[in-house]
């Protein structure tokens, strides 16, 4: 049966194992929801061979179609089946929530987003423009019976409702939840991870937060912040052919170009944990700022947007690299055991760390 989980999964987070990254201070929850207004909801499908789900990220709880956050996308390696990235890059705005799910459920989730947008904006496609749903994916096929097409529009809608029902800045469930249920990472159980960094600009506090769907990495290539290389107990020579989706949120005012520069630094964090963005890996980042919005019904010919002083942007580059690195480790540390299709499973990094048997 599907479950809605918005509390933190019972696995420990990365910092409980000493896996902190960088010198910057995390936000109060060390999560993407440290950015005011951002909300996350999950629906998890956990029944025998069906080990999958949907994760929803909302930049704000209002009408995204009419109040569009400035956004940008960066494709590090484009082996993926995402929807909506082309228009995000062309127009520099996000007009629906972001849904994460498995590869073969992208179409279903996209339709659910279209229905969600039309319900709040009946003029879509009739007297105003159509809507650009944004769905991103990873292949959970080794653990989940992906051919069962188990994710439905109702599951996607429930993930959106779960995100909307959360209080502003709620804790984020991490590990083997939502879209992360059936994911694998560096030969271990992967899933959802998150992290954030606190920034001070013009005397005011800001945050940059990251959420990852971690399903990538060649077994034996995982690197911890102290330099240790960690391998799963069983030998596995599988090639790098997974994927990782990195979602970044900030309340720092950035324009589209600046935002793209910032999220490109997700690649630094992925490289630090041991990824080289293999041929068969879909490594994609999408970011948005809640501080710059585009009014769908704007009447003025010329509008104003704020932007960061470019000479201060290194602070965001560093925050993006560190938060991405830690979010991946967070997904690995929090992941709990999953037994899926044909009895397939993955070892949990936490078991190895708790046993003290790492090199």
Automatic annotation (TrEMBL):
<protein>
    <submittedName>
        <fullName>D-aminopeptidase</fullName>
    </submittedName>
</protein>
<keyword id="KW-0614">Plasmid</keyword>
<dbReference type="InterPro" id="IPR005321">
    <property type="entry name" value="Peptidase_S58_DmpA"/>
</dbReference>
<dbReference type="Pfam" id="PF03576">
    <property type="entry name" value="Peptidase_S58"/>
</dbReference>
<comment type="similarity">
    <text>Belongs to the peptidase S58 family.</text>
</comment>
<dbReference type="InterPro" id="IPR016117">
    <property type="entry name" value="ArgJ-like_dom_sf"/>
</dbReference>
<dbReference type="GO" id="GO:0004177">
    <property type="term" value="F:aminopeptidase activity"/>
</dbReference>
């Amino acid at each position: 049966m599907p479950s809605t989980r918005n509390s933190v999964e019972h696995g420990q987070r990365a910092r409980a194992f000493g896996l902190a990254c960088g010198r910057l201070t995390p936000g109060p929850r060390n999560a993407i929801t440290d950015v005011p207004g951002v909300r996350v909801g999950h629906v998890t499908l956990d029944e025998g061979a069906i080990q999958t789900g949907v994760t929803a990220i909302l930049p704000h709880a209002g009408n995204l179609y009419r109040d569009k956050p400035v956004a940008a996308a960066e494709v590090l390696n484009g082996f993926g089946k995402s929807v909506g990235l082309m228009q995000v890059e062309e127009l520099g705005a996000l007009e629906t929530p972001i849904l994460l799910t498995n590869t073969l459920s992208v179409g279903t989730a996209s339709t659910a987003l279209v229905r969600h947008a039309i319900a709040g904006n009946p003029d879509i496609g009739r007297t105003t423009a159509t809507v650009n749903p944004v769905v991103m994916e990873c292949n959970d096929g080794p653990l989940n019976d992906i051919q069962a097409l188990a994710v439905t529009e109702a599951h996607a809608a429930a993930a959106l409702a779960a995100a909307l029902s959360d209080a502003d800045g709620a804790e984020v469930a991490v590990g083997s939840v939502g879209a992360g249920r059936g994911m694998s990472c560096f030969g271990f159980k992967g899933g959802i991870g998150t992290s954030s960094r606190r920034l001070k600009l013009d005397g005011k506090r800001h945050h940059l937060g990251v959420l990852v769907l971690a399903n990538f990495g060649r077994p034996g290539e995982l690197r911890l912040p102290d330099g240790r290389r960690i391998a799963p107990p069983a030998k596995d020579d599988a090639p790098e052919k997974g994927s990782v989706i990195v979602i970044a949120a900030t309340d720092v005012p950035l324009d589209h170009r600046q935002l793209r520069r910032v999220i490109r630094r997700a690649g630094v964090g992925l490289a630090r944990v041991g990824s080289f963005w293999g041929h068969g890996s879909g490594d994609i980042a999408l970011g948005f700022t809640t501080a710059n919005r585009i009014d769908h019904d704007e009447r003025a010919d010329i509008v104003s947007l704020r932007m960061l002083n470019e000479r201060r942007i290194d602070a965001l580059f560093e925050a993006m690299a560190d938060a991405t690195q830690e979010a991946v480790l967070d997904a690995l540390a929090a992941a709990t055991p999953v037994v899926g299709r044909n009895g397939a499973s993955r070892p949990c990094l936490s078991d190895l760390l708790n046993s003290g048997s790492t090199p």
